């Protein structure tokens, strides 16, 4: 399995400073939806994301078997009607493990990115709006963190925190935070230079109100796009950590952990590797398609 | 500056509202400090309309923004002076107290109504802001007042338009909304910074007419900053010509247009087209040669001297004080070492014809 795209090289991740805020004239959710719908790839991405989220949310109902129940008759069994995705090395149903594994993957993606946004957004807002030495300090720390490759940092943190899915989420979230600090700061600085911010100051708004009421809503689209793309990277990171034994612990299923075991049986039972690999591919592709679609739909320069 | 304030007071009634004394603003840029405002002093009376003209970089906008702490600091910094507004020195007030004045007793209207309204907030949300901040109105009362304000600035069907976003308004209507925000708390002073520059000529005329009507209704003082002498002539009681961060000439509007005493003012007036003269007016427009000085290294004397055909050696060496122009209307102040009327009179006949008010 590939260790995935390094976060900082994923498309659209490093927004250049001074890039204009994405949305100039919102107020129309319907028109945004229309622009998103006009992009087949974005709709496909959204459909897959919705499907995966649905499957993960209702895993208990959807999965035909208990994902940890062993069946000696199904050990490394080839795909069949009873086990459409086959059985694994101790006879667990691969389909059920894929379905339950979606919880670990999507959960890790959403929770870690949620954490990264929750930390990165306020810090970036502070850096971008306060400026001066606060900005300099935060940005130098962020630069230092960004200098360490995303996955290496996540592995180091996960190893330090100890192997568990929660710690893997924490490690991924902390590793992705610097990207959001940087993006938020760049966006805040771009919006803060807008004339309406000066106008807001001229009516006597205190700084906190300008930051939260006048600047924050204008940078949400950019953060949303970045978050969607980062979820894709986080899913790969979770799979990588689990593959290395630093994420989801057996017997609970996780796509990455399933691959670790499957690599020992590539000759006899290739389906053990194919399905989790395909799932990771599909989930990452879906979030990337959705993220790209969101960016295009929210970008005023591409409107016609 | 030894501006003679007593002549001013004798001329116009009304108590002093804003008293700017020797204001100096510097921007610490790479390559040296930029001296943006270099000792500006003047008094604005209650209910007076002051038109400030000058080209980009003359300090006309920067000096009013600096008074209210609206320039970025750093790199900007106030290097000296006092600005007394209703007896309080604005430059000495802490930011918290200044915020109570901004939008409350002093309202602003900015240049570009396309970009000075927040695109993500409805018009009501933006008009309500100063009302809630300064007057502490409840959400309901503020909204009712916002509706009245839209009526006041003649936006038809105000109630229905409150919840619309700025992009649903035309340029002229957005500037009306900006004026509504500027006037929301019934300020004693309204500062309009190039408020009509970004608008069509016809819309400009509507906005100027609206401001004049509102002034008659509400009686606030106005500082109208522009580079458009036509607008200044229509709206001002007093005109002040700024160049390189200094006031070069100041006086009653009629006096400035009919009897300019500074060569820069003359240059500005001569660069206006005169459509009223028919074929006789069809001549190449006058243009002031050269460009404004590099304010990192302001010239030692009169900053306009390098571009001024009438400049004397003294102009290049020593800055003239702003003082009552000899033989001019009371309150007509000029900073010049030369006697402009005498110099023009010596030129070819007809040269003064360009000086009529437009």
What does this structure look like?
The complex is a heterodimer of chains A (304) and B (358). Chain A contains eleven helices and no strands. Chain A has 304 residues and is mainly alpha-helical. In chain A, α4 packs parallel to α7 and α8 crosses α9. Chain A is elongated, with a radius of gyration of 22 Å. Chain A starts with 28 loop residues before the first helix and ends in a 6-residue tail after the last helix. In chain B, the strands form two sheets. An eight-stranded mixed beta sheet of chain B has the order 6-7-8-3-9-10-12-11, with helices on both faces. A four-stranded antiparallel beta sheet of chain B has the order 2-1-4-5. The longest helix of chain B has 18 residues. Chain B is globular, with a radius of gyration of 21 Å. With 358 residues, chain B is α/β, with parallel strands linked by helices. Chain B has 13 helices and twelve strands.
Write the layout of secondary structure elements.
The complex is a heterodimer of chains A (304) and B (358).
Chain A: H1 29-37, H2 40-57, H3 59-62, H4 94-130, H5 132-147, H6 150-161, H7 165-192, H8 195-202, H9 207-243, H10 255-262, H11 271-298
Helix pairs in contact in A: 1-11, 2-4, 2-11, 4-5, 4-7, 4-9, 4-11, 5-7, 6-7, 7-9, 8-9, 9-10, 9-11, 10-11
Chain B: H1 5-11, E1 16-29, E2 32-45, E3 49-53, H2 60-67, E4 76-85, E5 88-89, H3 95-101, E6 106-109, H4 123-134, H5 139-152, H6 158-161, H7 171-183, E7 189-193, H8 201-218, E8 221-226, H9 229-235, E9 238-243, E10 246-252, H10 253-258, H11 263-270, H12 313-317, E11 323-324, E12 333-334, H13 340-345
Parallel strand pairs in B: 3-8, 3-9, 6-7, 7-8
Antiparallel strand pairs in B: 1-2, 1-4, 4-5, 9-10, 10-12, 11-12
Helix pairs in contact in B: 4-5, 4-7, 5-7, 7-8
């Amino acid at each position: 399995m590939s260790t995935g795209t390094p976060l900082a090289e994923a498309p659209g991740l490093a927004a250049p400073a001074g890039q204009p805020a994405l949305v100039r004239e919102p107020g129309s959710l319907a028109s945004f939806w229309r622009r998103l719908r006009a992009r087949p790839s974005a709709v496909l991405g959204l459909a897959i994301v919705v499907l995966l989220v649905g499957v993960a949310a209702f895993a208990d109902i959807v999965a035909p078997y208990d994902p940890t129940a062993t069946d000696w008759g199904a050990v490394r069994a080839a795909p069949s009607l009873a086990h459409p995705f086959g059985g694994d090395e101790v006879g667990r149903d691969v389909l059920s493990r894929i379905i339950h594994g979606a919880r670990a993957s999507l959960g890790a993606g959403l929770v870690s990115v949620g954490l990264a946004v929750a930390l990165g957004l306020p810090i970036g807002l502070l850096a971008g709006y306060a400026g001066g030495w606060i900005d300099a300090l935060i940005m130098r720390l962020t630069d230092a963190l960004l200098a360490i490759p995303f996955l290496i940092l996540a592995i180091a943190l996960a190893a330090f925190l100890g192997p568990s899915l929660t710690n893997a989420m924490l490690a991924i979230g902390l590793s992705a935070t610097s990207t959001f600090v940087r993006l938020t700061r760049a966006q805040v600085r771009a919006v803060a230079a807008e004339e309406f911010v000066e106008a807001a100051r001229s009516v006597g708004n205190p700084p906190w109100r300008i930051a939260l009421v006048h600047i924050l809503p204008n940078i949400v689209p950019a953060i949303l796009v970045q978050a969607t793309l980062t979820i894709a990277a986080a899913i790969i990171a979770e799979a990588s950590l689990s593959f290395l034994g630093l994420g989801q612990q057996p017997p609970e299923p996780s796509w990455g952990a399933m691959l670790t075991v499957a690599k020992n049986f590539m000759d006899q039972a290739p389906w053990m590797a194919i399905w989790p690999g395909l799932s990771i591919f599909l989930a990452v592709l879906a979030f990337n398609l959705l993220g790209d679609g969101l960016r295009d739909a929210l970008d005023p320069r591409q409107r016609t | 500056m030894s501006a003679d304030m007593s002549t001013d007071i004798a001329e116009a009634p009304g108590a002093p509202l804003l008293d700017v004394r020797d204001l100096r603003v510097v921007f610490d840029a790479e390559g040296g400090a930029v001296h943006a405002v270099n000792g500006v002093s003047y008094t604005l009376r209650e209910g007076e309309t002051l038109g400030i003209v000058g080209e980009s970089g003359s300090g006309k906008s920067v000096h009013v923004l600096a008074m209210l702490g609206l320039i970025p600091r750093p790199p900007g910094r106030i290097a000296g002076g006092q600005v007394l507004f209703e007896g309080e020195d604005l430059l000495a007030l802490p930011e918290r107290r200044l915020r109570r004045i901004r939008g409350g007793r002093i309202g602003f209207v900015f240049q570009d109504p396309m970009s000075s309204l927040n695109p993500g907030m409805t018009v009501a949300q933006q008009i309500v802001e100063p009302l809630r901040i300064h007057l502490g109105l409840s959400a309901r009362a503020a909204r009712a007042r916002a509706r009245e304000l839209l009526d006041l600035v003649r936006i038809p069907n105000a109630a229905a338009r409150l919840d619309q976003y700025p992009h649903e308004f035309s340029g002229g209507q957005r500037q009306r909304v900006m004026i509504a925000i500027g006037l929301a708390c019934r300020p004693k002073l309204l500062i309009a910074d190039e408020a009509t520059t970004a608008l069509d000529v016809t819309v400009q005329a509507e906005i100027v007419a609206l401001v004049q009507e509102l002034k008659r209704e509400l009686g606030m003082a106005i500082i109208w900053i522009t580079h458009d002498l036509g607008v200044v002539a229509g709206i001002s009681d007093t005109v002040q010509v700024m160049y390189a961060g200094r006031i070069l000439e100041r006086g009653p509007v009629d006096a400035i247009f009919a009897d300019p005493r500074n060569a820069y003012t003359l240059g500005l007036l001569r660069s206006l087209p005169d459509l009223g003269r028919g074929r006789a007016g069809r001549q190449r427009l006058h243009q002031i040669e050269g460009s404004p000085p590099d304010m990192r290294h302001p010239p030692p004397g009169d900053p306009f001297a390098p571009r001024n055909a009438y400049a004397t050696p003294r102009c290049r060496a020593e800055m003239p004080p702003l003082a009552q122009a000899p033989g001019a209307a009371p309150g007509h102040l000029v900073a010049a070492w030369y006697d402009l009327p005498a110099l023009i009179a010596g030129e070819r006949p007809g040269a003064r014809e360009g000086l009529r008010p437009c």
